[in-house]
Amino acid sequence: MATSDSWVQDSVTCDLCDNPTQQFCNSCQVSLCDTCVKKHREDFSSLSHDIVPFLDRKIQLVCPECQHHPGQRCKANCLQCCVPVCFKCVISGPHEKHKLEELTKTHEKRTQRIAADTDEIKSELIPKYQGKNITYESSVSETHTQFVDLLNESTKLRQLWHQEVDNIFDKIDSISQSHRKENLNVLHTYHNKIKKLIFEMNKIVEQNEKLLKSKNFSEVNKYNSKLKEFRDFLHNVDLKLPSFNSKIEQGKELSIEFGDYRAILNQMLQTSLLADFPPCISRIWEQMDKVRVTTTISTEYKPLLGVACVGEAEAWIFGENQTITRIDIHGIVKNTVTNRGKTGLSGISVTRERELMQSDRDRRTVNIVRNGMPEICFTTPEDWSPKRLCCSRSGEIFVHICKLNIRATYTNKIIRYQGQSIQQEICNDRHGNRIFKDGSDSLFITENNNGDICVSDTNANTVVVVDKWGRVQYSYDGISAKKKGLFHPRGIVTDVLSNIIVADINNECLHILDHNGLFLRCIDDCKLEKPFALSVDSDWRLWVGFSNSRKIRVIEYLKNE
Question: Record's PANTHER family (predicted)?
């Protein structure tokens, strides 16, 4: 009668053929039949082999052959070079005097790491991802339902408005479909990624469990942990569902709000926008095939450092002489404001109430001009000087501030103020790296219709766009415009289509990007001589100021149906 040991031996086949095993190589941890022993020795003739009967086998770590000394097995691991080494490598080879560790100890550490990774993936990450998977399956259905409700409400309200109302609701439906598509794309993308990662993690668990059983050092040593990638991926998806409100007062007016889009219809059936609403209106705008210069305005400033439009036909401008002048589209001076000091004027902007704001870097103040005199709104933090600024549609103020650092250059960041209170600092990305490059040049700032903050980083020669939470969305380096010279951005604005327009002083053109940072076109046929300052009026014309002349060119590049 066969013993249990002999039964096990008969059930194990040779690793080189299908015959029952009789022998075992302790050195290579390989089961062999009598016939294959010779072949095994010949295949690995440079190495010594401890061949024993199968029942006398020893389970031990397989030490790899040294790459530099054939016939020698590696017994240690070089901690400096992270490679297995043999005795000769240590005595007189390239790893002499390097810090070493027994190969078995290195193998034990690696297997412990694999076991820990596998345990966390199985017990924590996979359940978390499965939970998110269920959540987003539900979110897809809810999103469909929410947008169906919005479209139904839109249809009911349409009946209350007359002929001219069609344009407004066409716009609403377009925005709704765009948001719906965008939200569902985000959900589907994230959902698919979660399912893919669940599959990958299950596969890794399976591979890791095999590795944990393996005694082959080379296989275990190749293990590359992906745990950090799995940990870092999970986050909540921010969906942008526009609110939908209407107001009907018998005999007065009809009003409607859909996200950022607002319109009013009065008794005369004339539509208008609320003063603080950005440019989504009932007319449909599109870019002109060929732009045209509406007018060229002569000013007293050379260089012209800043332009801030007021309404449809006026703008505040400034240069290096510490005065700010309000002119109309014909160049007629309407008003002049003088800065308190002989230096310090560094930026201007206009509030939604059409009041002038200006920054004074010497006094560290941001001021509002009333009755021809600057009044301090707030003072920037100690040692931080304000430069360029931008007034948002919601009444907040974005200010570029800078501070001299120990490297004798300037650290830059953007502060969001509400009243005198700091609401937000935009300076580092989610990895802790600085968003804006150190340097003494100004950051030009504007706000897009979706709440993104668009920044022309003149120190890095890039445009950086962050969302309203300060998270970097993308950057633009001008390469896709295929211009001969390097991209040197200056003034920056956004328009009714949520496109981004930035002045390129080096290539003497304007770059136009969509709200996702995709390059659309360049405006380079309007004699733009070193364009520097940039603003947009309420008729969506660009006011371009130049650094080497006293001129402003007003450019028409959009048309509406």
Answer: BONUS, ISOFORM C-RELATED (PTHR25462), MEIOTIC P26, ISOFORM F (PTHR25462:SF296)
Q: What is the DSSP letter of 96?
A: T
Other Cβ atoms within 10 Å of 514 Cβ, number: 12
Q: Which of 92-101, 229-238, 295-304 has the highest mean pLDDT?
A: 295-304
Domain boundary among 78, 104, 130: 104
Compute the radius of gyration of the chain from its Cα atoms: 35
Q: Are 122 and 212 in contact, with CB atoms under 8 Å apart? A: no
Rounded CA-CA distance 163/64 in Å is 84
Q: Per residue in 426-439, is it b (16+ CB within 10 Å) or e — as a string?
A: beeeeeeeebbbeb
- What are phi and psi for residue 8, nearest 5 degrees? -60, -45
SS (H, E, C) 13-33: ECCCCCCECCEEECCCCEEEC
| Structure letter (DSSP) for residue 124 | I
95 phi/psi in degrees, rounded to 5: -105, 15
User: What pLDDT digit, counting tens, does each position of 375-409 carry?
Assistant: 999 999 999 999 999 999 888 999 999 999 888 88
pTM above 0.85, yes or no: no
132/138 Cα distance (integer angstroms): 10
Q: What secondary structure does DSSP assign to 531-557, as a single string?
A: EEEEEE-TT-EEEEEESSSSEEEEEEE
**Dist CA 227 CA 239 (whole Å):** 27
Please state, in angstroms and rounded to a whole number, the distance separating the CA atoms of residues 181 and 179. Answer: 5
For residue 120, give the 3-state DSSP assignment.
helix
Say if residue 301 is in the same domain as residue 262. Answer: no
| Domain membership of residue 456 as a residue range | 285-560
From 89, 363, 125, select the one nearest 225 (Cα to Cα). 125
